[in-house]
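Before a colleague's protein record goes any further, I have to sign it off. What it holds is a sequence and that sequence's fold in token form. Would you go through it and say whether the fold makes sense for this chain? The record follows directly below this note.
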Amino acid sequence: HRAGVRRLLALAFRERLRDIERAVAKEHAAKMLFAAIGSKATLEKEIVAAALERSFLGASLPMTRREFAACCEEGRNRLTLIAQEIQRLAGSILAEHGGVQKKLAALAKGFPDAAADVKQQCARLLHPHFVSQTPWQRLQHFPRYLKAVSLRLDKLRADPARDARLAAELAPLHSAWQREVAARQRSGCATPEIEQFGWLLEELRVALFAQELRTPVPVSAKRLAKLWQSIRSA
């Protein structure tokens, strides 16, 4: 299975992975910010796992000795570069998250509803294994998502009524999606469409609270409501 193949790769490239872990260990600020997420995992292990995934396991799992050897040969030259790229992105994400947490600490008492919403959003995005378990194409958007959160908090003090109005547009869609995710997790039948809708909700947050950052696709509460109905009726 996937974890087993990743373990074989870790054994095959153990010297290279030690070098990667040493490089990450020197990033003391990023490690401290990562530890604040409340994880027993380490940033080093997360970056190694993500680098192995991207370097070797993008298409399909090797199922034979020959396929495994070919997989190792194909990915060996890009492993270190990919690990460095992931390390830079993780550092950027953690720095943005650290800034958001400072702003939250200053605003939480005065604006409890908005603060609770932001805390839940950050917890969804930056769970203990977000580096290794978030698809790379989505992880690259995390700095923008967190910048949008920071901008939302900047605007909150000046116009809390606006924030409440925009949050009310988002809330029904987000609640419906959360209920569906929970139901599908219990039944074990999660679908790519439901997962993709969750990322579109993150884009909607950007569009609502930080329009200046823009989104890669057009999103609005009305568009997503229509899409949600089509997903539910499929």
Residues 17 and 160 are 48 Å apart (CA to CA). DSSP finds 13 helices and no strands in the chain. The mean pLDDT is 94.
